[in-house]
UniProtKB/TrEMBL annotation:
The lineage of its organism: Eukaryota, Metazoa, Ecdysozoa, Arthropoda, Hexapoda. GO terms for molecular function: protein tyrosine phosphatase activity. This is protein-tyrosine-phosphatase. Belongs to the protein-tyrosine phosphatase family. Non-receptor class CDC14 subfamily. SUPFAM superfamilies: (Phosphotyrosine protein) phosphatases II (SSF52799). InterPro entries: DSPn, Dual-sp_phosphatase_cat-dom, Prot-tyrosine_phosphatase-like, PTP, Tyr_Pase_AS, Tyr_Pase_cat, Tyr_Pase_dom.
Length: 323
């Protein structure tokens, strides 16, 4: 991407669409900053000209009339500036305006420049992995179809990334339904010993619609496997090794050893037997003298429940009635 002449300081980021002819830029702030054209560069913005008429909280996309006006305008600018100036379409950093501006530029690329939509998306991805790594954030792409459940390799890779991360992690889905929730739910079940229903409930409280349809059934099917691998992970960690007593007797040790042998591979995604009762019995023996974050969460839940019962005791108050 070549830098156009005398880039204004107001521009936060930009991408080249046509070699030294057309650029798409995002300026700093959410205000109404106006960029002045120069001898070498022509700047224009449609943020205040082509405005989406929303019905409620929707913000786009702009209708086909706006797209037609934009294409006519940009074609005229390109013809006028051909061989003389670079044309820069800039937009503010406000998410709604930026999304609509990117939609217009992307549509122009498909209609007039004959660029494939997938390639247009890559071009307009102004904030990408490169920007993350520049500020010390590791970036991973875990790609699988929208609305589906993650394949085995994706799930194992996500769990590995989350377990090896030295700091907080952010899980983001570019667009779609349930992909982040399915992965986060798997982590909650494995490391906090939640049931699938508990994990789904908590995620839906945090963000409604985070797990939908077949993803709910999928989490329930792999619940027992996640519990087993979670116990194995805890058992092999330094915290587990520092415990003076992990099992009560030789019988428990043999049972635990046999139990862990079956946890190295994920279950058959299509047909999984949960076996919750047996798993719970073994799990209780293993963690009898070990308190985890999941145990602490359960204690907090129990304390809240007790307080709720106490608060239900009848309270008397005097009410004055005005007639």
């Amino acid at each position: 991407m070549d830098k156009f002449t005398n880039t204004p300081t107001e521009i936060d980021n930009y991408v080249e669409i046509l070699n030294k002819q057309l650029y798409f830029a995002v300026i700093k702030g959410k205000g109404t900053t106006k960029l002045k054209s120069t001898m070498d560069t022509f700047f224009f913005s449609i943020d205040d000209e082509l405005v989406y008429e929303n019905y409620y909280c929707d913000f786009g996309p702009l209708n086909i009339s706006c797209l037609y006006k934009y294409c006519c305008k940009l074609n005229k600018y390109l013809q006028y500036a051909k061989g003389i100036k670079s044309v820069v379409h800039y937009t503010c950093s406000y998410p709604d305006k930026k999304a609509n501006a990117a939609y217009l530029m992307g549509s122009f690329c498909v209609l007039y420049l004959k660029i494939h939509p997938k390639d247009v998306w890559k071009i307009l991805q102004v904030v990408g992995p490169y920007n993350f790594t520049q500020v010390g954030i590791q970036h991973f792409d875990l790609i699988f179809p929208d609305g589906t459940t993650p394949p085995k390799d994706i799930l194992l890779k996500f769990l590995s990334i989350a377990e090896m991360a030295p700091a907080a992690i952010a899980v983001h889905c570019k667009a779609g339904l349930g992909r982040t929730g399915s992965l986060i739910g798997s982590y909650l079940i494995k490391h906090y010993r939640m049931t699938a229903k508990e994990a789904i409930s908590w995620m839906r409280i945090c963000r409604p619609g985070s797990v939908i349809g077949q993803q709910q059934i999928w989490l329930e099917k792999i619940e027992s496997w996640l519990w087993r691998t979670g116990s194995q992970y805890s058992y092999s960690s330094d915290l587990y090794k520092n415990q003076s007593r992990l099992v009560t007797n030789r019988t428990d040790m043999v049972e635990h050893s046999n139990y862990l042998k079956t946890s190295s591979e994920p279950p058959n995604w299509k047909n999984v037997a949960l076996g919750k009762d047996k798993l719970t019995q073994v799990k209780e023996k293993i963690i009898r003298n070990y308190t985890t974050q999941g145990d602490k969460l359960n204690e907090i839940k129990a304390a809240r429940y007790n307080n709720k019962i106490i608060s239900k005791e009848p309270k008397f108050s005097y009410i004055s009635q005005v007639t």
